[in-house]
Amino acid sequence: MKDSLKQAIILRAVEESVTYTDSKLGGRPYCKLGDDFPVHSSGIPYMFIAQLNFAKLPKLEGYPQQGLLQFFVLADEGYGVYKDGYYCRYYSDFDSSHDIEPFSDEEMEYELCEPIIFGGPYALKATLLQELVPYTDPRSVHYDLPTENPAYSKYFDETDGSGTKIGGYAFMDKNSFDEKNSNAELLFQLDIEGNAKKTYAMIADSGTLQFFIERDSLIAKDFTQLYYYLYSM
């Protein structure tokens, strides 16, 4: 089972100040001069989800060591999952900002869907750790899981692939597992974020947004072709 270990950067959203170039959920994405906020060819706007500043994150083998990676999804009824409706923008270099981005509790309004990020921006705090293959992942059949051992219950509770993260294993089951995401790397997963008093992020019916990338494209820092999923129980 130890052969299944993969490194992951676990991200936790917190209500702390961020600059325009920090890792964050919601708020305003960094834009170079002349760049516009992305709009789908249908005219439906994109919804800004998250920004990752790799220079300020733990180092993960094969993933960028610097640069800004931004994620947008289409603001329609299905958040773009049926229309290839995502947009990913990568800045390999940029001018770092020291200006604090104002926090707001106001929610963005979209004509066709509910927002995913409520208020913001929220800072993303990162922890590097290793993950075992989740029990729900079809690949788990290749490992000797302790199904007749009391330790199995602990494994069951702690390895389900949930959480906001970069790398590691995604939250899925056999119905959301296909030949694309089974061989690709998890680029980014957004799960429910918040605290006991407030929800920061929630997708559809307590779902997760997932972006996968082929290993060769990841190493080349080519983020033009991803596999995008919305997984909901």
Overall domain count: 1
Using only C-alpha atoms, the radius of gyration works out to: 18 Å
**Overall 3D form:** globular
Uncertain stretches: none
The average pLDDT score comes to 90
CATH architecture: Roll
Q: What's the count of strands?
A: 12
User: Which CATH top level class fits?
Assistant: Mainly Beta
Would you give the CATH topology? Hypothetical protein YwqG fold
Please provide the ordered H/E string of secondary-structure elements.
EEEEEEHEEEEEHE
InterPro entries: DUF1963, YwqG-like_sf
Organism: Lysinibacillus mangiferihumi
Protein name: DUF1963 domain-containing protein
Give the SSE map.
Elements: E1 6-14, E2 24-25, E3 46-53, E4 68-74, E5 86-91, E6 122-131, H1 151-158, E7 164-167, E8 185-190, E9 193-194, E10 199-201, E11 208-213, H2 215-219, E12 227-231
Antiparallel strand pairs: 1-6, 1-7, 2-3, 2-6, 3-4, 4-5, 8-11, 9-10, 11-12
